[in-house]
């Protein structure tokens, strides 16, 4: 489950960053901000996720953008979209949990207390087989439901709020709940209200983006663009961050694994196999990797590998290549 608040453990409190290398995300130009940005889009009902992203690319004037967690055309809500260079680290959201609000239609009378009892049985590890119209192989798989709450029951209609693991099918979950109740059920409406630590209250519409771009292009004011487009660093909000020394950055940019001597501080907790994000001391996102040790193990490490680098955002040469001269970070 995504953790939106973590503690920070400092290994090298005296480490500093050289101002002549790199730059803080807030110091990027408007053009750089767009190319290294994340849009928390509020997708309306009607268009597919791919159509919504295509419109966003046209508005921003970029060739590449990618979304995480496809929403069906008749589903609205939070759709994170990485823009241009930001697509390189879209995998940071690959395991992000989701929160939905759904309207379920039961085909028979349902007692409220019995419904609540059945909902509690669907909390935790459940088995799911993807629906017939899904794009993946229909094999039985386990998914975790973190919470399942009844918000309202009106006759045969129920409003449910569900916090689920990535890859959970809300429509199938409602169908299975109906089966256990002894009445068939179908989903009448669905809205995604959160992805990882991104909530619908911070989502923006395509019109919001279009207005911000218009103001930038016609008046040279980038204030609105910086409000509706988040710096790509925000994509790591739900995973653990590891801040690294200037001397370790360029090696990571060339795909090297992260080693313990390069670590300045890190967020806890994280476990082996978890996704982690590498940051410079200026707050720039360098890349994303998979932890080879836990945060508890890292606290006492002086040597050895900390994480395998899977995706790199920062361009090589942004920081000095000291690793070529001194084999410090083996």
The fraction of residues in strands falls at 25-35%
Low-pLDDT runs of 5+ residues are none
CATH evolutionary superfamily of the domain at 7-25 and 233-325: PUA domain
CATH architecture of the domain at 7-25 and 233-325: Roll
- Sheet having the most strands: 10 strands, mixed
Helix/strand class = alpha+beta
- Overall 3D shape: globular
**How do the helices and strands follow one another from N- to C-terminus?**
EHEHEEEHEEEHEEHHEEHEEEEHEH
Could you tell me the number of beta strands?
17
Into which percent range does the helicity of residues fall?
Answer: 10-25%
User: What is the CATH class of the domain at 7-25 and 233-325?
Assistant: Mainly Beta
| Arithmetic mean of pLDDT | 94
Rg on CA atoms, Å:
22 Å
Q: In whole angstroms, how far apart are the ends? A: 32 Å
CATH topology of the domain at 7-25 and 233-325: Archaeosine Trna-guanine Transglycosylase, Chain: A, domain 4
- Helical stretch count? 9
Secondary structure layout:
Layout: E1 7-10, H1 30-35, E2 36-43, H2 49-60, E3 65-67, E4 76-84, E5 98-106, H3 112-121, E6 124-128, E7 141-154, E8 157-164, H4 170-181, E9 185-195, E10 198-199, H5 206-219, H6 223-228, E11 230-231, E12 240-244, H7 246-253, E13 258-259, E14 263-268, E15 275-279, E16 285-291, H8 295-299, E17 305-312, H9 322-325
Parallel strand pairs: 4-9, 12-15
Antiparallel strand pairs: 1-14, 2-4, 2-11, 3-4, 5-8, 5-9, 6-7, 7-8, 9-10, 12-14, 13-17, 15-16, 16-17
């Amino acid at each position: 489950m995504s953790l939106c608040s973590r503690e920070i453990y400092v290994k090298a409190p005296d480490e500093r960053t050289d101002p002549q290398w790199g730059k803080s995300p807030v110091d990027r130009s408007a053009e750089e901000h767009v190319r290294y940005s994340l849009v928390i889009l509020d997708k309306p009902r009607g268009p597919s996720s791919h159509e919504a992203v295509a419109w966003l690319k046209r508005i921003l004037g970029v060739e590449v953008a990618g979304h995480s967690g496809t929403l069906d055309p008749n589903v609205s809500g939070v759709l994170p979209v990485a823009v241009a260079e930001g697509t390189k680290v879209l995998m940071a959201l690959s395991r992000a949990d989701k929160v939905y609000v759904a309207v379920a239609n039961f085909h028979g009378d349902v007692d409220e207390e019995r419904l609540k009892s059945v909902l509690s049985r669907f909390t935790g590890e459940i088995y799911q087989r993807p629906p017939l119209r899904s794009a993946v192989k229909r094999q039985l798989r386990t998914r975790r439901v973190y919470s399942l709450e009844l918000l309202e029951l009106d006759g045969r209609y129920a409003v449910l709020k569900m916090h689920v693991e990535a890859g959970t099918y809300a429509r199938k979950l409602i169908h299975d709940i109906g089966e256990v109740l002894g009445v068939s059920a179908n989903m009448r409406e669905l809205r995604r209200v959160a992805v990882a630590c991104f909530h619908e209250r911070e989502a923006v519409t395509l019109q919001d983006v279009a207005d911000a771009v218009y103001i930038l292009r016609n008046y040279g004011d980038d204030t609105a663009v910086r409000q509706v487009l988040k710096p790509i660093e925000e994509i790591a909000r739900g995973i653990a961050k590891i801040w690294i020394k200037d001397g370790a950055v360029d090696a990571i940019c060339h795909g090297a694994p992260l080693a313990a001597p390069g670590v300045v501080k890190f967020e806890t907790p994280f476990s082996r196999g978890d996704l982690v994000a590498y940051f410079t001391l200026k707050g720039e996102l360098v890349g994303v990797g998979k932890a080879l040790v836990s945060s508890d193990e890292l606290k006492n490490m002086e040597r050895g590998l900390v994480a395998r680098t899977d995706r790199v955002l920062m361009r090589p040469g942004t920081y000095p290549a000291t690793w070529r001269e001194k084999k410090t970070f083996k």
